[in-house]
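The records we work with from here on pair a chain with its fold. Taken together, the tokens spell out the fold as the letters spell out the chain. The record below shows the convention in full.
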Amino acid sequence: MKVKAIISSLFIAGMMAACSPAITVQYDYDPKVNVRQFATYRIEADRQRNADPIVGSNLNQRRIADALDQSLKGRGYKPVQDGEADLVVRFFTDSRDRQQVQSNNTWSPYWGWGWGMPNNQVYTRNYEENRVVINVYDARTNDIIWQGWAKGQLNTKKERERDTAFRETVASIMKNFPESAGQDYGAAR
């Protein structure tokens, strides 16, 4: 009976690891804004909101800024260093402690009389959920015109995997941004 309990515990633990939260991406935009008017951009880290010392570190901010720069250039936008940009792209990160709870709620056979007994084992897993938020503003009005965000576990990766994780996360957020400068958002979809 103990072997059965050990095997079921290992199975549940493996299932919880396999079912760990994946990175999910969402976005929102202002449908009244004609994106054709924008051609240039400037990237800024939102210094007030990057409070997390790990995910919001300068190292990770550079990773995110580099990935944003690649994505926007790939869509036909031009970076502006010292002049006025049409778009201001600000990003920030944050982290929250989360807990995943899972129950196997099974019946185990009762030896002797043929009755079953409930065997409810509850497993919990604590983890840190990270979020990357990208806000795109009209530089003239300072109104937000597009926002994309991703949440999941970014901070658990090894050093080399972390570069890839941040690059892929930003790319997955930005794939929802209009394809090229001079194209209406509705026409890009």
User: Anything to note?
Assistant: The domain at 21-99+128-188 is CATH 3.30.160.670 (Double Stranded RNA Binding Domain). Residues 102 and 123 are 5 Å apart (CA to CA).
